């Protein structure tokens, strides 16, 4: 299994060499950031530059390709200014889910307040509710449920944060903290019937 700390140190060195003072932020998210990664887990990297051009994207792609671990590398590169214009759900999830290595996301794009979290929840639940409603009507074989599991876990984590003010990175830790049986089953990737899931999502959305 990859030594993630040694890898991140090597990657940081290459970022600094490639972008110098233009590097504004470097962070880790996803399963490695949560401490829940397996041997074949993707390495989700977040790189922000003060100014990001198309040539910077090409240069970053070449940097990624130079690593033996390139097949596992994903994530994105952008400018800090552009990130400020992201929709609230993506911006909130990015800030909360990313572990900083260089720089601070909150210093670049501002802190996350509870109204931001509420708006992110509304947006995320609306998308989930739409997908559930559409699929229940047009794909009654329920093969689509598996594809929604990941997004549902992120929604549950935001719900817990909004309700308690406590942000829990690891889904495995969060599953032992939630009282709602539906939320616990979602976090543990247990089978959830479509009707119960739709009712849960519908009730949550209307409560916000």
TrEMBL record:
<dbReference type="Pfam" id="PF01909">
    <property type="entry name" value="NTP_transf_2"/>
</dbReference>
<feature type="domain" description="Polymerase nucleotidyl transferase">
    <location>
        <begin position="10"/>
        <end position="55"/>
    </location>
</feature>
<dbReference type="InterPro" id="IPR002934">
    <property type="entry name" value="Polymerase_NTP_transf_dom"/>
</dbReference>
<dbReference type="InterPro" id="IPR043519">
    <property type="entry name" value="NT_sf"/>
</dbReference>
<dbReference type="GO" id="GO:0016779">
    <property type="term" value="F:nucleotidyltransferase activity"/>
</dbReference>
<protein>
    <submittedName>
        <fullName>Nucleotidyltransferase domain-containing protein</fullName>
    </submittedName>
</protein>
């Amino acid at each position: 299994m990859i030594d993630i700390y040694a890898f991140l140190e090597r990657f940081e060195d290459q970022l600094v060499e490639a972008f110098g003072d233009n590097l504004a932020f470097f962070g880790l998210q996803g399963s490695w950031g949560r401490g829940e990664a397996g041997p074949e887990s993707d390495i989700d990297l977040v790189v922000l530059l003060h100014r990001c051009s198309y040539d910077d994207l090409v240069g970053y792609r070449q940097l990624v390709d130079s690593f033996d671990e390139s097949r596992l590398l994903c994530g994105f590169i952008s400018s800090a200014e552009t990130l400020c214009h992201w929709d609230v759900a993506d911006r909130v999830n990015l800030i909360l889910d990313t572990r900083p290595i260089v720089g601070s996301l909150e210093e670049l794009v501002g802190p996350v307040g509870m109204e931001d979290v509420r708006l992110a929840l509304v947006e995320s639940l609306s998308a989930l509710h739409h997908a559930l409603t559409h699929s229940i009507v047009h794909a009654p074989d329920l093969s689509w449920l598996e594809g929604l599991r990941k997004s549902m876990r992120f929604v549950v984590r935001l719900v817990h944060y909004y309700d308690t003010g406590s942000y829990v990175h690891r889904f495995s830790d969060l599953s032992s903290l939630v009282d709602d049986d539906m939320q616990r089953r979602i976090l543990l990737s247990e089978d959830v019937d479509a009707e119960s899931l739709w009712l849960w999502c519908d009730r949550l959305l209307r409560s916000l």
